[in-house]
Specification:
A 5-stranded mixed β-sheet has the order 2-3-4-7-8. A two-stranded antiparallel ribbon has the order 1-9. Strands 5-6 form a two-stranded antiparallel ribbon. It has helices at 11-17, 95-99, 116-127, 150-154, 166-172; strands spanning 8-10, 20-26, 43-52, 58-66, 69-71, 78-80, 83-92, 105-108, 113-115. It has one domain (8-137). With 173 residues, it is α+β, with helices and mostly antiparallel strands. It has 5 helices and 9 strands. The longest helix is centred in the last third of the chain and has 12 residues, at 116-127. Helix content is 21%, strand content 30%.
Length: 173
């Protein structure tokens, strides 16, 4: 059986060729995402378009899309979020030295080679929300209903005073 395409690629060569590579990764195989996902089913689609930058360095535009299952921080239920993102990077052996004159984000390339899997995983981490939440609070799995709250039943526009009863509670202690 023939081996698949290499994951560790030569940035300079691909940039010279203007190569465009597409990869599909199982979310279960991306170690840095395991703590973020509630379920590791699904795939990450990644597209890498290599080119020379204005400064003459090797660079790439990276685009990703996936539908990971995350945990809503309001209701703590799992939900699927359509994620997409992209960025442009320059590759460098010495990230600190080249960052000053870089036109794009500088990505470390050990010996001029990078892992496409690592690039895609990094882009996915950047695209995920910091605090995942269901899109609509009303449809959130365990969101409390405001219709049973007497304060909202009388006047939905009324000002709520969440600490209104605190003074009375403090007197009891």
């Amino acid at each position: 059986m023939a081996a698949g395409p290499p994951e560790l690629v030569d940035c300079a060569q691909l940039s010279e060729e203007g190569a465009v590579l597409e990869r599909v990764y199982a979310l279960a195989d991306l170690d840095r995402l395991k703590d973020v996902l509630t379920d590791s089913r699904g795939v990450l689609h990644a597209r890498f378009a290599f080119s020379k930058t204005f400064s003459g360095r090797a660079g790439a535009s990276i685009e990703i899309r996936a539908e990971p299952r995350l945990r809503c921080q309001r209701c703590m239920q799992g939900f699927v979020l359509e994620v997409g993102g992209g960025s442009a990077v320059e590759f460098s052996d010495d990230e600190a030295a080249d960052a000053a004159d870089a036109q794009r984000e500088v990505y470390r390339a050990e010996g001029g080679r990078v892992s496409l899997r690592d690039l895609a995983e990094e882009e996915m981490l950047l695209a995920l929300p910091i605090v995942p939440a269901c899109e609509e609070p009303e449809s959130c799995g365990n969101a409390p209903s405001l219709s049973g709250d007497p304060e909202y039943a009388e006047d939905p526009g009324a000002m709520r005073r969440p600490f209104g009863g605190l003074k009375e509670l403090l007197k009891k202690t």
